[in-house]
Design a protein that fits this description.
One of its GO terms (biological process) is dUDP biosynthetic process. The structure is a single chain. By secondary structure, the chain is α/β, with parallel strands linked by helices. The chain folds into 2 domains: 1-64; 66-297, 3-Layer(aba) Sandwich (Rossmann fold). It is built from 13 helices and 5 strands. It is globular and about 55 Å long.
């Protein structure tokens, strides 16, 4: 029954493998990467790989990994404006609900604007652009929500590629225009948060997670807002309602505690861990000093 179900899911989601192969034939090394994805996860994996690779090829012909400094430098040169250090930057706030991400992001935006620097706050919780129709198909045919996707071997293997495209589309629509204009973007949730989501849902796979990390611009600074689950629950008392809405059967404190542990495990050496049990003003001062130093050095 499980194999038949996975086969049904796979056939429902597969699309355009011949087009992928045809496009890959004429792209040299890039084509080999596309074909590698095709062989790794089937027709859908190859198709999904085409979009971010093509986007990267068209926007950045070298197809190498670009840091935020590279991105801002290129866009500012196109616009004929000054050096990177006087323009845009990407500041990321990650952490569990109730850890103070939005509060500190909004304060930092106000700080930049008070100094005459154009800045904006972007709330970047995952939005299912590409994956939404497939989620609808899975719900109608199997009654599955995202919390159920780990039950399918096919979905465990390919779901990260859907999220990769979703995040690239989100970046292109909601973040890139601000960076192109030289703004400082304080983003509430980013790659680290998506890594935690994949782990929590039982859908984490190394390859798509690595692509998400490498194909999205690297933030100038990433803050992990760290706080005990009990404190976070007191600050934000609607976690239980959110779990009910998502049909997740979990105690709110246990949910927050599990996610906090995942954040600590997924954070890398560049992540600045901030203890947000301190007063808001003290937390802001530490973040402000770190960000201004990075911004002026940029």
């Amino acid at each position: 029954m499980s194999r038949r179900r996975d086969a049904t899911i796979g056939l429902t989601l597969l699309a355009g493998p011949l087009a992928v192969i045809g496009g890959a034939i004429g792209l040299g090394a890039l084509g080999r990467e596309i074909l590698g994805a095709l062989l790794a996860v089937g027709g859908l994996g190859g198709l999904v790989a085409v979009v971010p690779i093509s986007y990267k090829l068209l926007r950045y012909p070298s197809t190498r990994r670009l840091s935020l400094g590279d991105l801002v430098g290129i866009t500012r040169r196109e616009a004929g404006v000054g050096p990177v250090g006087t323009g845009g930057a990407l500041i990321c706030f990650s952490g569990i609900d109730g850890s103070g991400k939005t509060t500190q992001a909004e304060r930092l935006v106000a700080e930049f604007e008070a100094a005459g620097v154009d800045a904006t706050h972007v709330w970047a919780r995952w939005r299912p652009f590409l994956s939404y129709p497939f989620m609808g198909v899975l719900y109608v045919t199997l009654g599955w929500r995202r919390k159920d996707y780990h039950r399918s071997a096919v979905l465990r293997r390919i779901w990260g590629y859907f999220l990769l495209i979703d995040h690239l589309l989100f970046f292109a629509r909601y973040i890139y225009p601000h960076l192109r204009s030289g703004r400082v973007v304080c983003i509430d949730r980013y790659v680290l948060d998506q890594c935690v989501e994949l782990h929590y849902d039982g859908l984490y796979r190394e390859r798509p997670a690595t692509l998400i990390d490498s194909w999205l611009p690297t933030p100038d600074v990433t803050f992990l807002m760290d706080v005990p689950a009990e404190v976070a629950a007191d600050r934000k008392d609607d976690t239980g309602e959110m779990l009910d809405r998502l049909h997740i059967d979990a105690d709110p404190i246990d949910y927050l505690r599990d996610r906090r542990e995942l954040f600590q495990e997924c954070a890398n050496e560049q992540t600045r861990v901030i203890d947000t049990t301190r007063p808001i003003d003290q937390t802001h001062e530490r973040i402000r000093d770190t960000v201004w130093a990075a911004y002026l050095e940029g």
